[in-house]
Design goal:
Elements lengths: L1 E5 L4 H12 L3 E6 L18 E5 L5 H10 L2 E4 L6 H6 L1 H21 L5 E6 L25 H23 L3 E6 L2 E2 L10 H10 L4 E4 L5 E2 L2 E2 H12 L8 E4 L5 E2 H12 L5 E4 L1 H4 L15 H7 L7 H13 L3
Parallel strand pairs: 1-2, 1-4, 2-3, 4-5, 5-6, 6-11, 7-10, 8-13
Antiparallel strand pairs: 9-12
Helix pairs in contact: 1-7, 2-4, 4-5, 6-8, 6-11, 8-11
């Protein structure tokens, strides 16, 4: 099979590309390196079945060509990380909305090429009815809050994908990712696990935003990649939407304490008010835990990597950077 991955030099995209290559497939990636990195693909960029393009998915002529050469398309390219989204609001919206529109249009144009679109748990917004089911309501805040623009842009992607499926018969699958973590992830854009671990390894204060009682559930990138590939092999996933995550929640305070314990760090926890950590474009969510019963029923998804194993894998990688 020939696979195209947008955002293929990113954290999740690079792991997906590497796994597909190991399975004997041909992989083409495109990435503008706004949040991706060539370091993420250095271990396999010379593989004979691997091709990379450093360009934007807004390049319609190139996307038409790459999609025409693929048997299946994974669309992962998007703005990532709360910090990046708030600081680059316009670029984030354009990539998420126009970029996804281009992917859908040219997949349709090229004989309805099958496509998987990655959305986000952000679309549930301020809904507190956790764990979140795929049919639950989105509760979005004020348009003056930048973070909600990102959530709305991904919601629009989902609406657009469903419209292409229903009206143009495009075989498209949508997934909502919940706090995917693992080796290669950077804390540069606000991701909490790599940020906490780097602070702990340096014996610096672990900076927790808010009071630390907000709940998250963290999923290993290896579990996520397994699910993405399995869904791409499952034709009855077309026209469906799936949560991909781990339903074992932990508070951010507990996460910080666990990181300190696993790293044998001398770090202390420092609580920082949201208004001091972010601009006025930020508003947090109290809960972020998925209902994963649907994807379990479809493909037998059952996340295998627990939080301690996940953290240890990142700790070992980050030790090499100190």
């Amino acid at each position: 099979m020939n696979y195209l991955i947008t955002g293929g030099a990113g954290f999740v995209g690079s792991h997906l590309a590497e796994t597909l290559l190991k399975q004997g497939h041909k992989v083409i990636i495109i990435d503008d390196l706004s949040t991706g990195s060539l370091n993420n693909i250095k271990s396999f960029e010379n593989h004979p079945n691997f091709t990379k393009y450093i360009d934007t998915i807004l390049n319609e002529k190139l996307m038409d060509k790459l999609i025409s050469e693929a048997d299946y398309v994974y669309h992962l390219a998007a703005a990532v990380g709360v910090k990046y989204i708030i600081e680059n609001a316009l670029k984030s919206l354009l990539i998420n909305v126009r970029g996804t529109e281009i992917m859908l249009e040219y997949c349709h144009k090229n004989n309805n090429k099958p496509l998987l679109i990655t959305s986000t748990s952000e679309v549930y917004g301020k809904n507190e009815n956790a764990p979140f089911n795929e049919t639950d309501d989105s509760v979005i805040g004020s348009t003056a809050i930048t973070r909600w623009g990102y959530a709305c842009s991904k919601m629009f992607d989902e609406f657009l994908a469903f419209a292409y499926y229903r009206e143009r018969k495009l075989p498209v699958t949508i997934v909502r990712l919940f706090n995917t973590c693992g080796p290669r992830q950077t804390g540069q854009y606000g991701m909490v696990i790599p940020r906490f671990i780097m602070q702990a390894l340096k014996n610096e204060a672990i900076t927790v935003y808010g009071d630390g009682t907000q709940t998250r559930s963290f999923t290993s990138v290896y579990d996520v990649v397994w699910a993405l590939i399995k869904l791409s092999e499952t034709k009855n996933s077309f026209g469906e939407i799936f949560n991909i995550g781990n339903n074992d929640p932990i508070t951010i305070r507990e996460l910080a304490e666990l990181v300190i314990k696993l790293t044998n760090s001398k770090s202390k926890i420092q609580y920082i008010d949201y208004k001091d950590a972010f601009s006025s474009g930020f508003e947090d969510m109290k809960y972020r835990v998925p209902d994963i019963s649907k994807i379990k029923n479809f493909i037998g998804y059952n996340p295998k990597i627990k939080i301690v194993e996940l953290l240890n894998s990142v700790i070992e990688e980050k030790k090499t950077l100190i």
